[in-house]
Design brief:
heterodimer; A: MetI-like fold; 28 helices; B: alpha/beta; D-Maltodextrin-Binding Protein, domain 2; 2 domains; two-stranded parallel sheet; 9 strands
């Protein structure tokens, strides 16, 4: 009954609402025309407000020397140093690590085979050897040590939290807010204070990585548990299962593949932090990238970036294969093979401890410099061939879309923007959209960077629309077509983990220093995550449902739009949320290539101590924008829903 | 499938057995020579620009070779290096650009850092033009003529005005105030990074586009492209006292060196070296060129420069 009245209500209201929104926007443009330039709250680049100065003065308020933080620091430090000693750095009085390259390759392949399959074992061996041939073995192992430590801690904390947020609605609400904060608060804002708490060293770098990398696994675990059909849970309950049994025997097994997507996203996020962590002396590939970019050496930076991508792909495929492997006991044959393999690995490790050729990667191959030269040549060629054309595209998009939108947002009085946004939120998502919007807008005014926030908002909206459109298209395609998926995955992985600065230099050459360049970079970074989550959602649509639609003669388009997309709705909502958040997490990088506004404020606050407070305020403004947009879209998605949800916790989305 | 794997395993094992028995063993190589003097560990902050890297390379090379120190280079942004003075994780900063507020906090108030004099390098900040533009329109070198030419500096970002490309976020800029107070028809656009600025100048020179932007010397990029500085109204003592009313050029910066109090009191020979270390912009540019353009590792670049300039190094060592 509820579902019938619900959909009738929407069918009546929908056109009316569209008209009201249209009228509202027209009224806004008219008001903007009259009130242009009044109360815009703009603030110059070096200007600060009282709040900013107060924040600057109280930066060291928390201070160091806290015994609890020290304990964390020592523990994390030791964990990273242990990993480094084993695979990366000379240790225990020997000039080489405990396990040399041969041992690491053999061990990785063996583990990949034991927990996954022989294909990923080959991939792991080939990938690691490739990184060695690039001449980056030690750097890669340093990066791997730090990433493994961060991911391990993230999973240790994240999966239980995700389960909790999956089971409890209250925990879910709190978690969503905290995770939004963790993912959108720019790293630059907390990087310097982190080194105060945790000192300069592996601990601070690991914890910075952890903060950014943990949210995906929490979110996707919670999402997975909530997506388990309530029938399954009820069936288990009716058979007398306890809460614990339901969790272990029903919820977790049924969530496994989505949790693995979460783990993969956490690995990707951790690897995408490698260059940022290098700013506080995190060892590894990030250092190579930063050093190369000081002299705009795209080739060398690309070589190191490629090594990061290769590590990401290896880790991703191995964990995916491990996640897909059915739980069953091994056959005798396999046990014997595993035993033989284990012995071979031990032999390889012994070699790598004994002989230099097996301990230090031979430096003869020099593949790295050839890759660097090739990358430089390709970049130059692209710049020469497409240079003029790309500037034209930039100018068209900037003049046609971005400038009008930005003018509307920045030149209107702040209260006008606030009224319009709150009304819009109320129309689209009732009070559930309006209340958070009003709250966020109020706080944005308090941060003192309203004007910059509006500039950033304009670019963010444009970038997010592009990301969601492209992500839906690619996601549906790869979700329906297995071969497309296997071709596109490496490209998506590269987009997520290649350090943005590597492609920013060519982007700068193609588009100049502009907001458009920043938008392009954000789009490249955010499309992969959106695509992957959409594809996962499409794949999760029961085969029987799709076949039923096919059997009544639906066209492909009908199957997608009437069956797959509506059923995968929750995954799509999550994909939109993550697309938006990834776009926002690139705001600072955008600030470094000409987007100015909040991103520049944050970067300047990190570099100039007198601007620290302003940088922090700008960072918080980015979070507020994220929370506001997210809540409005979520509330709107809830209102326009056509089907009553049949899954648990649906009322929260 | 398993057959394939097994034969691969056997092959690998055979290959290993064949190749393994040759080759040097771990630990056979000669141990690195121990330093002659007692120096211990010297924690040197390295900030992310090539000029600094040049200073650090040479000081680290001399400290290791002549003083037998164990130099630990820490790659840190400036702000974080200063924090490190307090926690004892950083001993020395070799090229400091101004940072009066940090000096007040760490030298005057917390007394954890000590100034040890100029590094000999002179820092210049200002507005620069690409060489082709300065040649084609030499009148642009005077700020008074900038308004007439504003239209050619228009871009998609500058909202109908001329674009003044600003902003490596690490540097203080008065440009918004300058544009306002000199009544220039320009908009300050924040490029946001040194990379973006350099790329803009490169593109401008190559494609003969007009660009005017904020830049600074010493900088390795001048080896590639000799940017030309625009003359702003002369800097006089106190003309930039009120940031909102600035209408004059940037002052010349005397770049200096900072060490931690603990390091200064330690009596380490490395401290004496840092204190006496001083060289010219030309010296730094040579080493910066070795690193940035000739792609030499910092250590090799330092070695080459030290060989050619032994007398300067001897002076630092008090020989």
């Amino acid at each position: 009954m509820a579902s019938i009245t619900g959909s009738v209500e929407i069918r009546v209201r929908r056109p009316r609402r569209g008209v009201i929104v249209g009228v509202l926007l027209v009224a806004w443009v008219a008001a903007w025309f009259l009130l242009r330039g009044v109360n815009t709250l703009s603030l110059g680049g070096q200007e600060t407000t009282g709040l900013h100065r107060w924040l600057t003065e109280h930066r060291d308020f928390l201070g160091s020397g806290n015994a609890f933080l020290d304990a964390i620091r020592v523990a994390v430090d030791q964990l990273v140093i242990l990993f480094q000693a084993v695979i990366a750095q000379p240790s225990y009085g020997r000039p080489v690590p405990v396990i040399g390259w041969l041992g690491v390759v053999a061990l990785s392949a063996y583990l990949a085979w034991a927990f996954g399959n022989w294909k990923v074992a080959l991939l792991a061996a080939a990938g690691l050897t490739f990184v060695g041939l690039q001449g980056l073995w030690q750097e890669a192992m340093d990066t791997l040590s730090l990433t493994l430590a961060a991911v391990l801690l993230a999973l240790l904390i994240g999966i239980p939290l995700g389960i909790w947020a999956g089971l409890s609605n209250r925990a879910f609400r709190v978690a969503t807010l905290v995770l939004d904060l963790m993912q959108t608060l720019p790293t630059f804002v907390y990087l310097a204070p982190l080194t105060l708490f945790f000192a300069i060293g592996p601990a601070a770098a690991t914890i910075a990585t952890l903060i950014y990398a943990a949210p995906p696994v929490v979110r996707l675990t919670a999402h997975a548990i909530r997506s388990v059909p309530s029938e399954s849970v009820e069936a288990a309950r009716s058979l007398g299962s306890t809460h614990g049994q339901t969790l272990l025997k029903v919820l977790l097994p049924m969530s496994r593949s989505t949790v693995v997507v979460g783990i993969n996203q956490t690995i990707m996020a951790a690897l995408s932090m490698v260059t940022v962590a290098a700013l506080i002396d995190a060892p590894g590939l990030g250092q190579t990238v930063l050093k190369a970019l000081q002299t705009l050496d795209v080739g060398v930076a690309f070589n190191a970036g490629l090594a990061i991508v290769v590590l990401a792909i290896v880790l991703d495929r191995v964990t995916t294969a491990a996640g897909d492997r059915p739980w069953r006991t091994a056959s005798i044959r396999r046990k014997v093979l595993l035993g033989v393999g284990g012995i071979a690995v031990l032999v390889a490790i012994w070699f790598s401890r004994t002989y230099i050729w097996a301990a230090e990667f031979p430096s003869g191959a020099n593949l790295g410099s050839r890759i660097a030269v090739a990358a430089t040549d390709v970049t130059n060629w692209v710049q020469d061939v497409f240079g003029g054309f790309t500037f034209g595209v930039r100018d068209a998009v900037t003049k046609g879309v971005l400038n009008p939108l930005e003018a509307l947002l920045t030149e209107s009085p702040w209260w006008l923007v606030a009224v319009v946004v709150v009304t819009l939120a109320a129309l689209l998502g009732s009070w559930q959209g309006a209340v958070p919007a009003a709250l966020c807008l109020g706080l944005l005014v308090v941060t003192g960077v309203w004007h910059d926030a509006m500039v950033t908002l304009a670019s963010t909206l444009l970038a997010t629309v592009v990301v969601v459109a492209a992500g839906l298209m690619l996601g549906v395609w790869t979700g329906r077509n297995h071969r497309a998926d296997s071709w596109l995955r490496p490209v998506l992985d590269a987009g997520q983990t290649m350090p943005p600065f590597v492609y920013l230099v060519p982007f700068l050459a193609l588009f100049g220093t502009s907001r458009f360049t920043a938008i392009a970079a954000a789009v490249v970074f955010a499309i992969p995550v959106t695509t992957k989550i959409v594809a996962d959602g499409i794949r999760a649509v029961p085969v029987a449902t799709v076949e039923a639609a096919n059997s009544v003669g639906s066209s492909t388009w009908q199957v997608i739009s009437k069956v797959q997309l509506p059923v995968a709705r929750r995954a799509i909502t999550l994909a939109v949320n993550q697309g938006l958040i990834y776009v926002l997490s690139m705001v600072v990088v955008g600030g470094l290539v000409g987007a100015g506004a909040l991103g520049y404020d944050v970067a300047a606050g990190f570099a100039q101590s007198e601007l620290y407070g302003k940088g922090l305020a700008a960072g918080l403004a980015i979070v507020l924008l994220g929370v506001m947009l997210d809540r409005i879209t979520q509330a709107a998605a809830r209102r326009t829903r056509k089907f009553r949800g049949t899954v648990r916790g649906d009322n929260l989305w | 499938m398993t057959n394939k794997l097994r034969s691969a395993g056997v092959l690998t094992a055979v290959a290993l057995a064949l190749t393994a028995c040759g080759g040097a063993k771990v630990g056979e190589a000669a141990k690195p020579a121990e330093g002659a003097k007692e120096c211990g560990t010297f924690n040197l902050a390295v900030s992310p620009w090539v000029g600094y890297e040049a200073n650090a390379a040479v000081v680290a090379y001399v400290a290791t070779k002549d003083l037998g120190c164990k130099v630990v280079k820490k790659n840190l942004k400036e702000e974080i290096s200063w924090q490190g003075f307090g926690t004892g994780e950083v001993d020395a900063v070799l090229e400091n650009w101004g940072h009066e507020d940090l000096k007040k906090k760490y030298v005057t108030d917390q007394k954890v850092a000590v100034e040890v004099g100029p590094s000999g390098n002179k820092g210049v900040i200002g507005w620069y033009l690409p060489p082709w533009l300065a040649e084609a329109q030499p009148e642009l070198k005077d700020w008074k003529n900038l308004n007439k030419a504003a239209a050619q500096f228009k871009t998609s970002e500058s909202g109908g005005k001329g674009q003044l490309l600003d902003g490596d976020p690490s540097f203080v800029t008065n440009d918004e105030a300058l544009v306002k107070n000199l009544k220039l028809d320009y908009k300050v656009v924040y490029a946001g990074s040194e990379t973006a600025l350099i790329q803009a100048f490169r593109d401008a020179e190559k494609n003969k586009k007009p660009v005017i932007g904020y830049f600074y010397e010493p900088q390795w990029f001048f080896n590639e492209l000799k940017l030309v500085k625009v003359d702003l109204p002369k800097w006089t003592e106190g003309c930039d006292a009120d940031p909102a009313k600035v209408a004059c050029d940037y002052p010349a910066y005397e770049l200096d060196k900072i060490v931690s109090k603990k390091f200064a009191d330690s009596g380490s020979p490395a401290y004496e070296l840092v204190k006496k270390f001083s060289w010219t912009n030309d010296d730094q540019n040579v080493v910066a060129k070795y690193i940035a353009e000739d792609k030499m590792p910092p250590d090799a670049a330092a070695e080459k420069w030290v060989k050619d300039n032994q007398s300067k190094v001897d002076a630092w060592l008090g020989k």
